[in-house]
Amino acid sequence: MAGRTDKTISSSVKGTDAEKLGFIEEMTRNVDAVQERVLAEILGRNAESEYLKECGLAGSTDRAIFHAKVPMVTYEDVEPYIRRIAAGDGGSPILTGPEYPISEFFTSSGTSGGEPKLLPTVADEVDRRQLLQSLLMPVMKQYLPAGGQQETGTGKVLYFLFVQPETKTPGGLPARTFVTSLCKSQHFKNNASHTYTTSPVGTTLCQDAFQSMYAQILCGLCQRHAVSCLGAVFAAGLIRAIRFFQLNWEQLAADIETGVLTARVTDKSVREAVAGVLLRPDPDLAGIIRAECSKGDWAGIIKRIWPNAKYLSTIITGAMAQYVPTLNYYSGGGGGLPIVSTMYASSECHFGINLRPFCDPSEVSYTVMPNMAYFEFLPVDDDDGGNNGDSDSSHQQLVDLARLEMRREYELVVTTYSGLNRYRVGDVLRVTGFHNSAPRFRFVRRKNVVLSVDSDKTDEVELQRAVDHAAALLRPHGVFVVEYTSRVSTESIPGHYVIYWELLMNNKEMNGDVLDKCCLEMEEVLSSVYRRKRVVDSSIGPLEIRVIGSGTFEELMDYAVSRGTSMSQYKVPRCVTQSPHIIELLDSRIVSSHFSPMAPHWAPDLRSRDSQE
Asked: What GO cellular component is one of the record's annotations (predicted)?
């Protein structure tokens, strides 16, 4: 693979860090050999599974036979097997071998039917994920200033993590988010006890979002000079934390001044955890907080409150890229603090790491580590044009990791140790380069997803269904939806969905209350993940419908045609989040604006489909 490589990772580091960097080099020199070994290992340990037997593998670990006999699948294809495991099927091994039973399920984004996915995992998967995570800091240290806090080990991380309520399947297996599983693991608790983070474990494990956030910020303030990094899983979560600080700084300052935690925090474990940090009254620190926060100008507030912060750590690819300007505003400086996206992972498995962590957010790419799973790639048709429509892929051949082409886009397909075989993850990636023989990928988008504020993922089918349900409320009034599009608004915090409607009124007047109800009706139809984010996490604001003047969508088409689009092939874009000129046009034609009058219904329900019938 000569000529297809990045610079070699620095060999100037010593000890364990050098071993980790050497491991990266070893894994990326001949990815095809590593991938062949990984696939043989997966097929060998799961040879007795019902699924692989049905595919006709007969215990074979040969890659060519695997390619010929095992089909590419979606979640809907494997859901019947997953439901049987969740229900406690005591028969033969279903997805994995008898020595590697499914140990728990990670709950992922809602399917088109609105229910969360249950993604299987096995006990030793945690070792692979921890191995990948152990590579991050050795890579980071190559780019950090010599003698900095991160180099000496004195710096701490103010990283906002939150657990979600979990449940058990009818068969008794835990069903919870990956982050919840991580936070409750012994590995996480041991790391936290080593004081790498400002947040004691008790503050993270509290399921009350207000109390957990309040306590984590308070502990971060008490250790403000030790904080070298602030972060959250997604950029939206980090912004939500700063917004929470904006709303609650006066009470936080009062607690620090008196050395007494507010009575609003009632959780005993949280109070005990905070007591180990909020040791005594600190009127000087309270004064600094009041002086900075009372100015009314929150530009650069992160550096003003945490002066030794060197970077932000959060995911800012895909839909999260919309939050980069806001993070730059809050972190101050020329372009704000560097924003680092270290790792590419999902509930299915961990994929790769960013070997150039301090690159510009628009240039973030991840190098896939070939020992994590067996990776294949479905080429995205050139005529797909980045649209969200699904193209017919039945005739396309999957491409191995070692045979990808520069600048091509592919949909990720994985075979995992946890029993998912040739599973379409739904991520579209673009090859941006190579490290040794391992491709680097830029995350382009979630396939079919049009709207996302936090970790919600609303596709075009879900959006259409929500619009249809809401539009039905208009018909008794003789009013109809002529056309619509949508976007995510981050002008206010938290962000929210904006739906633009052009209505056929027939000279009728439309009651604003009815349109408010249309907003709520749309939310009731959206996925359970969206509704949980609205109701439990408060990380998504009320949905907004903006009624625009008659003829606006004709102007939209004229604009597209003037820029070279064929009129005969023009389709109204269902999402315009990344189109500032179109947004400006739509917003200049607003007749009225309406919001959901209340939060939609949400209740956790992870029962198997069989138990519901």
From this structure: cytoplasm
Rounded-to-integer distance, Cα 539 and Cα 358, Å = 27
Among 383, 392, 377, smallest CA distance to 429 is for 377
Q: Which residues contact 92 (CB under 8 A, 6 or more apart)?
A: 48, 50
Distance set, CA 321 to CA 331, 407, 444 (Å): 16, 20, 11
Contact between residue 342 and residue 325 where contact means Cβ atoms under 8 Å apart: no
Q: What's the rounded Cα separation, in Å, for the pair 200 and 279?
A: 14
Quote the CA–CA distance of 246 and 213 in Å, as a whole number. 12
Amino acid at 77: D
540-576, pLDDT tens digit by residue? 999 999 999 988 987 887 887 676 554 444 567 888 8
Rounded (5°) CA angle 353-124-67? 70
Structural domain boundaries in the chain: 15-121+347-386+393-446, 145-309, 451-612
Each residue of 432-474: pLDDT tens digit? 999 999 999 999 877 877 888 987 888 877 888 899 899 899 9
Peptide bond into 439 cis (omega under 30): no
For 115, the token pair is: 């229910």
For 6-37, the pLDDT digits (tens) are 444 443 344 588 999 999 999 999 999 999 99
Distance CA 148, CA 229 (A): 12
Query: Where are the extended beta strands (E) located within 385-543?
Result: 399-400, 409-415, 423-435, 438-446, 449-451, 458-459, 480-489, 496-504
For residues 25 and 17, give the distance between their C-alpha atoms in angstroms, rounded to a whole number: 13
